[in-house]
Every structure is written in structure tokens, then in C-alpha cells.
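Batch manifest, entry 17 of 40.
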Amino acid sequence: MQFAQLLKDRRSIRDYEPKEVTMDIINEILQEATLAPSASNNQPCRFAVINCRETIKKLSDESKANLLRDFEQKKTNLTPEYADILRNEKFNVFYNAPCLIYVAGPKVVHSLDIDCALAASYIMFAAVARGLGTCWIGLGAHIRDSKLRASMGIDENMRIVVPIIIGYPKEIPAPSARNAPKVLRVISQAR
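Output type: C-alpha cells
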């Protein structure tokens, strides 16, 4: 696949075939994710892979409960409509995807958000190159239960930055409209 086509084919997928994604494929994708740049080549990103739908549902429920608690305590801004969606027991923030990858790292790393976002973009492109779909699920990052975190190898000194769902898409949605680049100014060498 040509790189320009890869960029065009990446979509946020929220509906997946029931087919599982093998660990061989996930390992290939994660190996490619380690090629992402990081500040000072620190390589702080760590990956937790969940291929168990029951565990993914538990993580969804945990994240929803924490988001709603934060909303009720006015620690986060959600629209009332969004809060209603989170209250729906059947709503799974991970859209019942067959696989979930958390990208996390040490809280003390100043560039962690950027480093993890870069690794996440590599995961997304590596997945598209293999006919898979992904979606960054910000709602799924609110995991506070120490037992759940420990089961994923994410201790209290680490922060979840990116939850990414991955699987075989039922369909690929049409691309959404994109604006032209908004260049503020070009400063060139005088000739």
C-alpha cells in the first residue's frame, strides 16, 4: 500500500466483525509502533493488550462509572445527553471490539502524551496496512480500579494515555470532509 493511500484509508471504526485479531498480528503492529519517534528517544510507551471481551466490558463499565462520578462531582464537562449515553448499561465505550490496546507510560515523563500519541498513530497505520480498523477511545482511559490496572500491568506510577480498539471492520465509512491547511504565514529567505 502506498503511504498516501494509507493516510486516506485510516478511519475511526466503531463496528467490527466477530473475528478475532491474532496475537501474531498484534505483535507485528506493536513492533512497528516502537518505530515511532519519542522525545530524546526515551521510548516510554508500554502496551497492554486485551483480547478478552469480558475484560473489555469490565473496562468499559469501570471507565463509564468513573466518568459519571466525575461529571456528578463537576470534575469533568459532559453534556447531559452524553451522560445519559454513559448511563446506558448496554453501551460499551469500546463498541464491542474484539481487541483493545492501551498505550501507557510513566507519569513522570514530561512528553508522555506526545510520545504515546505518536505510537498510537503508528498502531493505527500498521493496522490499516493489514486490513484492520481502529479507533482511539478517549472515554476508555478512566480506569482507576487498582486490581483492573494491575491485571493489565499498569501500576500506579503509570498513566493511560491512549485506548485503541482494533478489529476487522464490518464496513469502512466514507471519509469525512477535511479543510484545506490553514497556513498562518510563510516566512521565506529574501532573495
